[in-house]
Here is the input.
Amino acid sequence: MSETKTMTINMGPHHPATHGVLRLVLELEGETIVNATPHIGQLHRGIEKLAENMNYQQVIPLTDRLDYTAASLNNLGYCMTVEKLMGIDVPKRARYIRVIMSELARIMGHHLWLGSHALDIGAMTVVFYAFKDREKIMNINEELSGYRLTPSFLRIGGVAKDVTPDFIRSVREFIEVFPEALEGYHRLLTDNIIWRKRTMNIGTLSADEAMSWGFTGPSLRGSGVAYDVRKAFPYSSYDDFDFEIPVGDNGDVYDRYLVRMEEFKQSLKIIRQAVENLPEGPVNVDNPLVTNPAIEDVTEDISALIRRFKIQCEGPTAPAEEVYHAVEGSKGELGFYLVGDGTAQPYRLKIRSPCFLLTSALPRLIRGHMLSDVIAIIGSLDIVLGEIDR
Amino acid sequence: MEEVKLIIDGNNITVPGGSTVLEAARSAGIRIPTLCCHERLEPIGSCKMCFVQINGCAEPQQACKTRVQDTMQVTTDSEQLFSMRRESLRELLLRHPLDCPVCDKAGECLLQDLAYEFGVTDVHQHVNATFETFYPTSLIRYWPERCIVCKRCVTACAEIKQLGAIDIKGEGPTAQVYPAKPERCESCGECLQVCPTGALTENLSRYKTRPWLSKRVMTTCTYCGCGCQMQLNVMNNRVVGMTVPNVFGVNKGSLCVKGRFGYEFINSPERLKKPLIRKNGTLQETTWEEALGLVASQFSRIKKEYGRDSIAGISSARCTNEENYLFQKFMRAVIGTNNVDHCARL
Here is the structure.
């Protein structure tokens, strides 16, 4: 009688379908997964520690590099946490601009997910369409901020500058053309028999289990839990907008796919409302200790020069308190826990990364499935290693 | 001295009689913003920042000049006081030039810190006075437009150094520091040490560094045996400036002209770093071993040929006591002569 032996193989860290540098040690029996161990940390840049040696304003570009597929969302989470710590109330126009930037970022993040998820499973066509449309948002980012992937457009107390009519026009154009593109994605995948066979009843997770693993975002909603930070704890004027939270039924890869596809539509709905109702007014809080004075004032007014000098060279100070603030990132609840110590630099910045918790459930999800399903499951969780490793 | 009990911001405080309200507040850890007040000087009362409200007084009083009294009730912070302080700062900024990007003091400037802290905005400058920029010494540069006429420098010159070389002339927007008795100036730099803004800077270290870029190294002055404490500002391994904390050492922030300004020799390319021996009429670099060997052999030769009293030794005030002791011991015990002298024996 022959003895059954398992085989251990390494998947990653340089595997294109692990969405970054995730290393999975898989134990196989034939082609079935017996056990899996994720190894993380290979993209660790020490962002939390770096932040302790920078002033509050300087940390913003670091946050772009967490979930770099949807950078503005990270900006929003961080800036709102600092504003909560410093007790700053952001003007309405700035909040709306932030919402537009965030939802565009969410669509951008979902584009990358859609393209690479389909590509991983074998539907190669989708990635070309998804990246073509993602390019449009990148162009909008570039037009507004000068950067395509990592705009760093948000500032503590508002945004870097007011938006131009050209920006509004570009966003409107995108709103017009995108629904048709979305239909195209659906035609390529939703009723595609191969797609359905590869995704249905794969990586199923019940609502209770998803919650106990700490799931948030589309991955939790795919299991049928209607939790969305934008609705549960509205921030940045999200309660002004009318939108729905799509949920799935079975909690499998296909349901998570459907939820994200629906989120494209909801994000578009929010952007449309924000652009139509964009209020007039300042885009930065009127606080001389935080807001940079206009450059024209700096060449004429000594007090403006002093403020600019102090804000740029030392930065605004925060009280010795601690706060937590979370936003709905494109992958889930992205939280920032910030401790101030009365100086211009954070004492501690802890980032609650939704992808970290999603990754922790990977062994549970892929156990018992075939090797090729591992790719589908990783893709459906939409993890970004930049955020897990930080 | 009998003790006085008073209440500041709701805190019961006991201080010796004769203290000022400012001293009483500071002893209790309550901060009253000040600009002209200095630890080493008597109250000046020119900056109008330290106003506090005292029970029974209709108008706010200057905390630095008001003496404490029993049962006094003092409020150090209120909306009225905050706006008064902000207005005082706005007044001071009216003639201040747009110099922060090029000012050596920017970053540790008291005026800048307070203007930012109090959120001063919309300073509409209208003063266009012309100033005379003469200063009695070339080591110190006076920037009259930056001056807020707080009189710290004048007071320090008179109180700490007891020289009175400088004074204020002019009134209001045209007031400035001028050398009243230039012949008395010792170039000691006490005035720039106490200057809260960049109105008095040392002429040597202009534009070389920023306060937050340079490393501050605490050291003892090597010019004489006094042992004054000082801080070298080091950037890229070069000494680019000198700051002196007000609280340390025997000197408490004071230095003489050599100590404060004589640091450029450290990085001088002409500085002698290796011993030289004159061979065939030219000085040539050599090792310490050879140089000291030559000196020792020549000493022995001279002592043998001409007698021990043909050699004399003169020592330096830059040596420590111990080194001077060893030097005279060497002259007496090894050479065997009493011909020992010292540069400070005047």
About this structure: Chain A touches chain B at residues 287-289, 293, 298-307, 309-310, 313-314 (CB under 8 Å). Strands of chain A lie at 7-11, 23-29, 32-39, 154-155, 158-159, 322-328, 333-339, 348-352. The radius of gyration of chain A is 22 Å.
